[in-house]
Specification:
The chain is an alpha+beta fold and about 325 residues long. It is about 45% helix and about 15% strand. The chain contains 14 helices and seven strands. The protein has a three-stranded antiparallel beta sheet. The protein has a two-stranded antiparallel sheet with strand order 4-5. It starts with 14 loop residues before the first strand and ends in a 19-residue tail after the last helix.
């Protein structure tokens, strides 16, 4: 259709034009990006399904202005709980038809948005909602949600955890343009300690590094929002030891001392089953890929591999590593 103008019926290549336009959304004038094709002869505009929908662009601006959740946030939250639209609707008191519309881009009303945000932000409220729908959700799903709520409540109430500091960092190139994700950090650690062999502090740091930097290289954002620092034995999570100690103290992990000849070394075993539903499909694939690639690799070998990365060779000792170095990953 880009070679014919339907208005003047001339065979001519239409020109793609980008600009700004104003759309009224719920009584407000919203200025947003616009994109369309235009005939260079008669100046008639033509829209094509392959172009971004201008109404979606207007909705995105409106959501940002009013602090509304995006369709992706609603979808990702539901998937993190492992629920269908009907099950989440039952849990929070919104019809599944309405949830389906929101996930497909419809603009939610303020009441429903407040319910969804409370479900996301308030694990105590979400846990209480489980008691209101007892017997109406599959038992395994109810238990998984209850466990996720317990983890979030425990994280919120334990003092002096490093992630209380990490959560204060705004998205930047030093955390993969993502604010720190407590649930994803905890469950990534649990996954690696469950699925790979002999995970101690050194190996765990490298697995998390390749997970986040690998995700950033492919999708432009990290998984956990962690910041990594250049240290002697390779890239490590900032405040790595206090992070692990907090997980040991709160009984997410159990420390086991093993021996190899005359050498003793520490490894971690997950004390809690990881909840992989907190991750998107792409994040799960990346996590499994890192596990498949490095799961049986020793901590020494993995440390040596990380020493070949520009993220280590080109960064000063003790400095934070920008995620821009993800483009140069060699081992993954």
């Amino acid at each position: 259709m880009h070679n014919v103008c339907l208005a003047c019926e001339k065979e001519i290549t239409l020109v793609r034009v980008t600009g700004r336009r104003i759309t009224e959304v719920r009584g407000e004038k919203i200025e947003h990006d616009d994109c369309y094709y235009q005939c260079p002869l008669c100046q008639e505009k033509a829209w094509d399904p392959s172009l971004p929908d201008p109404l979606i662009a207007a909705y995105d601006v409106y959501r940002t202005r009013h602090g509304l959740l995006t369709p992706e946030q609603v979808h990702d939250f539901r998937r993190s709980l492992g629920l269908t639209q009907q099950e989440l609707g039952l849990l929070i008191g919104v019809s599944y038809v309405t949830l389906s519309r929101y996930e497909r881009g419809a603009l939610q009303d303020q009441k429903h948005n407040d319910l969804l945000k409370r479900a996301i932000d308030d694990p105590a409220w979400l846990s209480d909602r489980l008691s209101h729908v007892a017997g109406k959700l599959p038992e395994a799903k109810s238990e998984a949600i209850a466990q996720a709520c317990r983890i979030r409540l425990r994280s919120a109430t334990v003092a002096s955890t490093p992630w209380e500091l990490w959560e204060l960092d705004p998205p930047s190139i030093l955390n993969g343009f993502k604010s720190f994700q407590t649930d994803k950090y905890i469950n990534a650690v649990l996954f690696f300690c469950s699925a790979t062999a002999s995970v101690g502090k050194t190996k765990l740091n490298k697995l998390l590094f390749y997970l986040d930097f690998g995700m950033y290289r492919k999708y432009g954002t990290s998984v956990t929002g962690l910041t990594f620092v250049r240290e002697q034995y390779g890239p490590v999570v900032r405040h790595q030891y206090s992070g692990v100690e907090a997980l040991l103290r709160d009984q997410y992990l159990t420390e086991v001392v093993k021996t190899a000849g005359d050498i003793e070394y520490e490894t971690f075993i997950a004390s809690v089953e990881p909840n992989i539903n907190v991750f998107s499909d792409a994040e799960r694939d990346m996590m499994q890929g890192v596990c498949d690639k490095f799961g049986t690799v020793s901590a020494k070998k993995l440390s040596d591999l990380s020493h070949q990365e520009k993220a280590w060779t080109d960064v000063a000792q003790g400095s934070s590593i920008p995620y821009s170095f993800a483009a140069d990953l060699k081992a993954l």
